[in-house]
Design a protein that fits this description.
It contains 15 helices and no strands. It is mostly helical.
Length: about 325
């Protein structure tokens, strides 16, 4: 989630639109592209974690997910109205119903959750060869029709199709571990990130754009997500505090990216960029996002307490 927040700030800062020619500040461009290539893997990692552990479909799980979404959005909207940041109108109601393009992930992950039983059956019963055929077919399809040609651009990869492919890829590496990949996951991840940064820097220099590198449907970004997941797997790290904070990651996304919160976050992010440069800028922005994350986490405890009360009351009725 920190990577996603980093992407929402770093990639979209007005001040990050460097006006000097790339030949005059190549190091600044390259650093920006490295950070961009790292952050673009945030969504992929989120889905890969779901694929690694597997989504356990339950109706109550769907209700819990929808409660998380609408409780968070409506409470944030209510606070915004109370603070005179927003007014009660049709536009605000639509945002609170998640009818806002910034909340595409709400629909995408709900769709993945609903079709997860089908994906799980395939994961459980398919042979290794058929699994490989499906994954190769997926990467060829989405790479050609979306990433390369743009003929069928499913929202720059922000879709259930991409989510399903990442979900299956993560599940494949858990079911059929590749020793070389697992052993060298971190080194391979660094190599892919540097390759993406080099290509995007070159295309920026020659053609004025990032060469379709900074996209979620970039197959290199997908593999970087899988490799980073495998890198953390090697750590065998466990923490109750981290698990509690992980339970609030989706709420952090909803809160920090709310149209009633996000503009203020961007003001602080732009201030950080104006005051700090290079790696110090990245560190200070990271600290800012950690503070925002903790604030959202504390805010989400109200939602967790109310859901536990509702869930317990329903169980007692039964």
């Amino acid at each position: 989630m920190i990577l996603i927040m980093f992407g929402h700030t770093h990639l979209r800062m007005d001040s990050m639109q460097i006006t000097e020619p790339i030949v005059e500040v190549p190091s600044l461009y390259f650093l920006k592209n490295i950070l961009s290539c790292i952050t673009i893997t945030g969504v992929g990692i989120f889905i890969a974690i779901s694929g690694w552990f597997g989504i356990k479909f339950k109706i109550r799980g769907v209700v819990k997910y929808l409660y998380l979404v609408f409780f968070t959005l409506w409470v944030v909207y209510g606070i915004a109205i109370a603070l005179h940041i927003a007014e009660f109108n049709i536009s605000g109601v639509k945002i609170s119903m998640s009818f806002f393009d910034g909340y595409w992930f709400v629909m995408g992950y709900l769709g993945l959750y609903l079709i997860s039983p089908i994906l799980n059956i395939f994961i459980e019963h398919s042979t290794k060869k058929s699994f490989q055929v499906v994954l190769i077919s997926f990467f060829l399809f989405q790479s050609y029709y979306s990433w390369l040609s743009g003929w069928y651009d499913y929202y720059d990869g922000y879709s259930i199709i991409l989510f399903s492919g990442i979900y299956l890829t993560a599940a494949y590496f858990r079911k059929y571990p590749v020793r070389f990949v697992e052993k060298n996951a971190l080194q391979l991840w660094i190599a892919i990130i540097l390759l993406m940064a080099l290509i995007s820097s070159f295309t920026m220099w020659k053609f004025g754009h990032a060469g379709r590198m900074i996209r979620d449907d970039n197959p290199m970004a997908i593999w970087a997500s899988i490799l980073l997941l495998l890198s953390f797997k090697q750590l065998k790290f466990q923490s109750k505090i981290v698990n509690r904070m992980a339970a609030s990651c989706f709420a952090v996304y909803l809160i920090h990216y709310s149209p009633f919160v996000y503009p203020y976050l961007m003001q602080y992010a732009n201030y950080v960029f104006s005051q700090f440069h290079g790696f110090l800028y990245a560190i200070m922005l990271l600290l800012l996002l950690i503070i925002v994350f903790i604030g959202c986490f504390l805010f989400d405890q109200v939602r967790i307490i109310t859901w536990n009360f509702i869930n317990k009351s329903i169980s007692n009725v039964k």
